[in-house]
Task: structure prediction
Amino acid sequence: MSANATLRDRLIATALDLLRDEPPETLSIRKVAQALGTSHQAPYVHFGDRRRFLAAVAGAGLAEAAADAETAVASAGPAPEDRLRALVRAYVDFVDTRPHVHALAFGPLVAMSDDPVLHTAATRYWTVLSTTVAANQPAEVDDDEVARRTAMIWGTVHGIAGLAAAGKIPSRIPADRITLLDNAVHALLTG
Result:
């Protein structure tokens, strides 16, 4: 955090740090203020209420994840399917390394419309996903179909990654989650 960071920025950064070890449901404004060493009223001055505070935290975390996803796609080379697989792995890395931020961004505690940064980050993530999926489609596939396929791929990846992270995929399944994700994406791409 830079020395010029505002109190608002420091509150968000502190909350993101706390989310490394605790789920968003237990993250209180008072706890964040205490960890930062500021008044418990300070977050209310900047955010108004807990929901808007959590949405701002989710926005910052999802913005980082979107940047990571863009980097992964750009680094994967020119092959469209390789770029999509890199994006899938970046999403799994987000679930693995920042599970509580992921849960906050995509869970029921906040809505994308609760914070402009969260809305922008979600749009940014969707754009990299839909652009990457579109690059894997034949030229005759229209925009509506690309959007449908994007939603199917994201839903599948989100589901498998979440189930695996929660330990809910039966151990008798003869594949690890990356293999399952690769197989699912391949099946969705090829029909």
The chain has a mean pLDDT of 93. DSSP finds nine helices and no strands in the chain. The longest helix spans residues 50-75.
